[in-house]
Amino acid sequence: MILDKDIAKKTAELLLQINAIKLQPSQPFSWASGWKSPIYCDNRITLSFPEVRTFLRQQLAKQVVAAYGKPDVIAGVATGAIAIGALVAEELNIPFVYVRPEAKKHGRKNQIEGFLDTNKSVVVVEDLISTGGSSLKAVDALNAHGVNVKGMIALFTYGFDVASENFKNANVILHTLSNYDNLIEQAAETNYISAEEINTLKEWRTNPSEWNTIC
After folding, report:
1. In the chain, which residues have pLDDT < 70?
2. Are 43 and 15 in contact (CB under 8 A)?
3. Distance (Å, rounded) from C-alpha 102 to C-alpha 114?
4. Are 88 and 39 a contacting pair, CB within 8 Å?
5. What separation in angstroms does the CA of 58 have from each of 53, 61, 89, 135?
6. How many whole angstroms separate alpha carbon 202 and alpha carbon 181?
7. Which of 8, 92, 129, 213 has its CA 20 to 30 A from that of 155?
8. What tens digit of pLDDT does each residue of 124-169 get?
9. 112 with 81: CB under 8 angstroms?
10. Angle ∠(179,185,186) on CA atoms, nearest 5
């Protein structure tokens, strides 16, 4: 769910400007899943641009409070949202932890890194939502720890139906600063890509696992 349309468009504009999001309908990327994609999102790049980083930190913190109230703790999902989550926690002046995909095999064998008491309210921060699978595993780990996960906020989502279904089934509320629809709208308004490329991007989103294009 998008809380602020203007912020969603501004976020999309900034991600495009710094090439955190790259659109290449004619030269599709290969995802780790094997999917071919005309878009690639790497929100870690935002950390290298102080003005963008500050904007995202402030807006994520603002929307966390607007959507869920001020939580006791912010939890980032490893690895992409560790730094972003820490920035949000700093803005809100509250503790931060991060959640690994699985427990370490050595040492203290932690899955949740940092001090996290039980019965605390937690908002999870993500950088990117695709299917939502890895993000929801982090929520499962936090629930197993005995905290109250109020919801999740992410920088960007592709808006796949499978992700919506996964979050619905897990009973987890998701808010994002921006999404695929706002990205397409911003790219069209600024002539970032052609009308034909926009159609390709729209077609891909309807069936990403089967989509392919002739380069």
Report:
1. 213-215
2. yes
3. 15
4. no
5. 9, 5, 10, 22
6. 9
7. 213
8. 999 999 999 999 999 999 999 999 999 999 999 999 989 999 999 9
9. no
10. 90
DSSP letter assigned to residue 109 = -
Which runs of E-coded beta strand occur in 96-207? Answer: 96-99, 112-113, 121-129, 148-157, 174-179
Measure the CA–CA gap between 9 and 211, rounded to whole angstroms.
Answer: 26
Distance CA 149, CA 61 (A): 16
Cis ω on the peptide bond leading into residue 79 (within 30° of 0)? yes
Hey, what amino acid is at 191? Answer: N
For 3, the token pair is 């809380």
DSSP symbol at 26: T
pLDDT of residue 178: 95
CATH node for 5-206: 3.40.50.2020
* Angle of the 5-17 helix axis to the 180-189 helix axis, nearest 10: 70
Q: Which two tokens stand for residue 6?
A: 């203007």
In this prediction, residue 26 carries a pLDDT of 82
CB 151 within 8 A of CB 168: no
- First vs last C-alpha separation in the chain: 34
Please report, for residues 64, 81, 82, the alpha-carbon distance to residue 57 in angstroms, rounded to integers and kept in the order given. Answer: 11, 12, 13
pTM equals 0.93
